[in-house]
Design a protein that fits this description.
This protein is an alpha/beta fold. The protein has a single domain, classed as 3-Layer(aba) Sandwich (Rossmann fold), CATH 3.40.50. Helix content is 39%, strand content 14%. The protein has 7 helices and 7 strands, in the order E-H-E-H-E-H-E-H-E-H-E-H-H-E. The chain has a 7-stranded parallel beta sheet with strand order 3-2-1-4-5-6-7, sandwiched between helices.
Length: 269
């Protein structure tokens, strides 16, 4: 891997085995960072790490359930032991599920909240404790446009992502005095294996009618946004939610009527 803007820095990336997390870990490694790839699927994380090592990256995989504080503590401790510090946290791990509002069980609600919101809290808190002695660091959370532009039948997921935005802002305020910046990215629809819409021959094209750029995002495009927020280029940016959705949430696309509506005015040339 080449020397880049993250050389001599260490990044911990959660949910790093595949999808957006894999792209984030790859981007940091390509720009010179040491990277701890954290994922609940330790075997898949190791496979990803092996591929990066083959390209010359300094990386290690670590199996971790972010919904368990002890597991998060162990991941941070391993990062400090292996690389001697922690400069960047990409709190990316999360899960999603779709259920009608009236059918969401206590267990289903708790599962989403435990991983997405509580797990992100554990990661931020434990990473911050490791960053403070070194004078600061950068934390980037993966939120979602669902935090403010909800999807039906995903109340628990929507709530968890909205909570991440509030958590991010709270952490940015409270940790700023320690030199720690905290931001979040809100991805739009990403082309990943976990996202059925992007490959559905009916739902995919229909969704794209509401995307001004007319295409789905690639994981690498979200990784680029995370890398920016973690870099010195964003040294005065904290507490911000950067929406990367190709303009999807800026408005609604409506078809033009075939004839002027009653009472409407038309400009004359």
């Amino acid at each position: 891997m080449s020397v880049g803007r993250f050389s001599r820095r260490t990044a911990l990336v959660t949910g790093a085995a595949q999808g957006i997390g894999r792209a984030i870990a790859t981007r940091f490694a390509q720009e010179g960072a040491n990277v701890l790839l954290v994922d609940i699927d330790g075997a898949l994380a190791e496979q990803t790490a092996a591929e990066l090592r083959a390209e010359g990256a300094t990386v290690e995989a670590f199996a971790c359930d972010i919904a368990d504080r002890a597991s998060v503590k162990a991941a941070v401790a391993r990062c400090l032991e292996r690389f001697g510090g922690l400069d960047i946290l990409a709190a990316n791990a999360g899960i999603a599920d779709g259920e009608p509002f009236l059918e969401i069980s206590d267990a289903s609600w708790q599962r989403i909240i435990d991983v997405n919101l509580t797990g992100t809290f554990y990661c931020i808190q434990e990473a911050a404790r490791a960053m403070i002695p070194a004078g600061g660091g950068a934390i980037v959370c993966t939120a979602s446009t669902n935090a403010f532009w909800v999807e039906s039948n995903m109340a628990h997921y929507n709530a968890s992502k909205g909570g991440i935005v509030a958590l991010m802002k709270s952490a940015a305020w409270d940790l700023g005095e320690y030199g720690i910046r905290v931001n979040a990215v809100a991805p739009g629809m990403i082309r990943t294996r976990a996202n059925y819409i992007t490959e559905d021959p009916v739902a995919g094209p229909e969704y794209l009618k509401g995307v001004p750029l007319g295409r789905f995002a690639e994981p690498s495009e979200m990784a680029a946004v995370v890398a920016f927020l973690a870099s010195d280029d964003a040294s005065y940016v904290s507490g911000e939610l950067l929406v990367a959705d190709a303009g999807t949430t800026i408005g609604v696309r409506l078809p033009l009527p075939e004839a002027p509506l009653p009472g409407s005015q038309r400009a004359e040339g």
